Amino acid sequence: MNGRLKENLLSIRQAALAAADPFTAVQRAIRFYPVGAEQTAGRLEVGGSRWQIEPRNRVWLIAAGKAAVRMAEAAAKALGQLLTGGVVVTKYHHSQGVELPSCLQIYEGGHPVPDERGMAGARAIEALLSGTNPQDRVILLVSGGASALLPLPVGGVALEDLQTLTNLLLRSGAAIEELNTIRKHLDRLKGGRLAQLAAPAPLAALILSDVIGDPLDVIASGPAVPDPTTYADAIAILARRGLIHACPKAILDCLQSGAAGEIAETPKPGDVLFDNVTNTLIGSNRLAARAAAQEAERLGYHTLILTTRLEGEACEVGKMAAALAKSLVFDGDPFPPPACLILGGETTVTVRGGGKGGRNQEIAAAAAGALDGVPGVAVMALATDGTDGPTGAAGGLVDGGSAEQARQAGYDLNRALAENDTYPWLEAAGGLMITGPTGTNVNDLLVVLAG
Questions:
Q1: Cα four-point dihedral sign 89, 151, 281, 35
Q2: Distance between CA atoms of residues 128 and 430, nearest Å
Q3: Among 115, 140, 194, 328, which residue's CB has the most CB atoms within a 10 Å radius?
Q4: Alpha-carbon torsion 113, 114, 116, 120, what sign?
Q5: How far is residue 105's CA from residue 23's CA, in Å, rounded to a whole number?
Q6: 295 with 375, same domain?
Q7: For the segment 189-246, what is each residue's pLDDT rounded down to a tens digit?
Q8: Chain-centre distance of CA 94, in angstroms?
Q9: What is the rounded CA–CA span in Å between residue 213 and residue 141?
Q10: How far apart are CA 283 and CA 219, in angstroms?
Q11: Beta strands in 127-261 (DSSP E)
């Protein structure tokens, strides 16, 4: 790959990830102003909440998601002696290298498919919140992945049912809004039910968004947010995806019972429950995209953020990225090189093969094929959490020579795309991007460089 373009893309990547750093975001959002020398009384500000704290108040911390550990680390530092205890649930290997106070229980669980360890963490949260009272204060730290990491199925639904349904929806190419609408009606912590469980204790949630447009009720399935969706909506999604007959019977029975009014709905907008709850957005894809743009401009590129609402089939988005690159090089549109275009969002993959890969790897491979032989251009497709699909890669870096390099190594691009097997193809092309867990999660970034 072109060395200079690769170096610049890596510099842009670093700037974007630094801007989405969850530790810094939480540090900005929590402030304690003590009264007296004891450091256990004063005014505590958490996002949109302002609490007067006295020694009799207990402060509990709940953190869930891929960025949970770094968020909890910042919160614990800001709270100091105020912190009573809490529970932290994150993805496997995402707690390494961080030391948290001993009063915090740490769990690692499965993502994107939930597992027993995640459910153990969810049960610990349920047990903690079931014992709260009006004198307690609850701080909830939410980041992407929390939906899968906190499985706590309602009665009659087993974890295995949730696992089966999750795999079916992921393979169908379901959007996160669809997946989380269903999850909210099958789980005891989602769709505002975590806040319901914490009541009557006041709750302040700090949210790092991994959903396009930052809808608070969708991020992590809105554990402390009013839920505008219904059981009927969940059933309609299964029907639209052709999964009514494929999904586990226990799930369909639960949703149909809810739609018939036999099971209570999730708490809705206007519920007095949320009078004691605040939800504050502290980080998003837009913030990361702006930082990427600033770094590109510093490097001398004419830069434009095209969107932070990118969606669609990953393979088609990759071809579109290549078309944008060609417009820069051959037409000078929207401006001539050196030029940089940035797109944020999250694509989907309709899985048809049994290969190894992820949405960003598929974008990069498809872009490489469409840019075959085109000089002076490069594309980076990045999952900001460092894990693209069920792989250890963060995405791909490709240019006009990547396809030829893979061909010389004996790898066929058409087969790789058909089999969703882009990981080995990118590895052969020299374009596999591995960062390790980044500690954050604010969707994906697609960067096109020319010149």
A1: negative
A2: 48
A3: 194
A4: positive
A5: 19
A6: yes
A7: 999 999 999 999 999 999 999 899 999 999 999 999 999 999 999 999 999 999 999 9
A8: 14
A9: 19
A10: 12
A11: 137-142, 203-208
Q: What tokens does 71 get? A: 């968020």
- Rounded distance between C-alpha atoms, residue 190 and residue 131, angstroms: 19
**Which DSSP letter does residue 266 get?**
P
156 and 233 part of one domain: yes
pLDDT, position 181: 98
Model pTM above 0.70: yes
Report the alpha-carbon distance of residue 428 to residue 195 in Å, rounded: 48
- Give the residue from 247, 254, 216, 248 showing the smallest Cα distance to 232: 254
Query: Contact, 241 vs 181, CB < 8 A?
Result: no
Neighbours of 436 (CB within 10 A): 12
Name the residue range of residue 378's domain: 286-450
Per-residue confidence (pLDDT) for residue 440, from 0 to 100: 87
Average pLDDT, the chain: 96
Indicate whether 358 and 277 sit together in one domain: no
Other CB atoms within a 10 A radius of the CB of residue 55 amount to 9
Q: Number of folded domains in the chain?
A: 2
Contact 409, 395 (CB under 8 A): no
3-state secondary structure labels for all residues of 138-160: EEEEECCCHHHHCCCECCCCCHH
Give the pLDDT confidence of 23-55 residue by residue, as tens digits.
Answer: 999 999 999 999 877 778 999 999 999 999 999
